[in-house]
Design goal:
This protein is an alpha+beta fold. It has one domain: Gcn5-related N-acetyltransferase (GNAT) (Aminopeptidase). 26% of the residues lie in helices and 31% in strands. The protein is built from four helices and seven strands. α3 links the parallel β4 and β5.
Amino acid sequence: MTPVPTPAGDMAGFQLALVDWARHGPALAAVRHAVFVIEQGVPEQLEWDGLDPECRHAAAFAADGQVIGTGRLLPDGRIGRMAVLAAWRRRGVGAALLRLLLAEALGRGDRHIHLHAQVDAVAFYERSGFVASGADFLDAGIVHRSMSFHGDASTAVTSTRQS
């Protein structure tokens, strides 16, 4: 893991890295399980779609090395599975993960960066340059809205590649 410093304005106490699913998958999966399956009631079979091995994964680590947040970037430029443990929310972890994934997408030349936001999180993504479009839809029993990135590289942090 090569840590990526968090922006100066963040509440410190965590580091970011792009990580490999084969090595860090169990820790990333534990965060997603806690957030999506336990907290939000997403059925296990819907959470595990088999796409993780082909994705780029971002992880946030607490000072003790525990994974506290995660997100992924699919080959088609879609960001998804953004999850932060409850105790770490509203401390800049999610925004930092999103900036890292945006930097990775922009760095590899993705032209269409998009996501499916839970409607309660639309404003969070708008603050980072995403624009909502289309009608709301249900995904895993949760109302979502499609969003596309319309920002620029200044929205993202510099990516440090990690295999």
